[in-house]
Design goal:
Elements (H helix, E strand, L loop, with lengths): L4 H23 L2 H8 L4 H7 L2 H19 L7 H14 L2 H12 L8 H17 L8 H18 L14 H19 L3 H5 L1
Helix pairs in contact: 1-2, 1-4, 1-6, 5-8, 5-9, 7-8, 8-9
């Protein structure tokens, strides 16, 4: 029976996501990844190269899935920030993976530069049309909206970023989400003077 390489790759990437989120790159073990995926360890090197390249692929895949799960809407940046917040609540290991990237592999972006540039261009166009506040450069505005959506996951004291949402009550979760959406609204909306001009 021929092997289903696509299915094997997907299992390896799923197992690698779990392993990297838990242990980072240095602590991750290809033996555990292969065992969890029910695959031969050699296939990791055949399909992905070394452990760092596997991490890059896992990060890219997670970022792509996140972008597909949370479509960018330049007409509703507050709603976009809230949707990112919701996505991170549903996928808490994403924040752990991002933390390991910052610590061990800062050169791995996960997000394609072209994707970010496209979003920045959409923000710039919306500013030109007068739909968004023009006072902040488009790349700064988008970066700050993204940062606000993630801020609570980094700022919670004495809690692992990958577990923080699980420690919140539904009431606290709703308050944090509301704050994120309101902050994104305030930073992106036109001022009263700009609206009247």
């Amino acid at each position: 029976m021929p092997r289903n390489s696509s299915a094997t790759k997907a299992r390896l990437l799923d197992a690698a996501f779990t392993e990297f989120a838990a242990y980072g790159i240095a602590g991750a073990r290809v033996d555990r990844i292969a065992e969890a995926a029910g695959a031969n360890k050699r296939l990791i090197y055949v399909y992905f190269g070394n452990k760092e390249q596997l991490f890059d692929e896992v990060l890219h895949r997670a970022t792509t899935e996140g972008a597909e799960s949370v479509p960018f809407d330049v007409e509703d940046l507050p709603g976009y920030a809230g949707a990112i917040f919701d996505h991170l609540v549903a996928r808490p290991d994403l924040m752990r993976l991002r933390l390991w990237r910052l610590l061990e592999r800062p050169s791995a972006t996960g997000l394609e530069p072209d994707t970010f540039r496209r979003k920045v261009a959409e923000v710039a166009d919306a500013q030109q049309r007068g739909d968004l506040a023009p006072e902040i450069q488009p790349n700064d505005l988008l970066t700050m909206v993204l940062a606000m959506a993630q801020a609570w996951f980094w700022a919670a004291e004495d809690v692992d970023p990958g577990q923080v949402s699980q420690s919140w009550s539904p009431e606290r979760l709703a308050l944090h989400r509301s704050a994120v959406v309101e902050a994104a609204r305030r930073i992106s909306q036109k001022t009263a003077d700009a609206q009247g001009s």
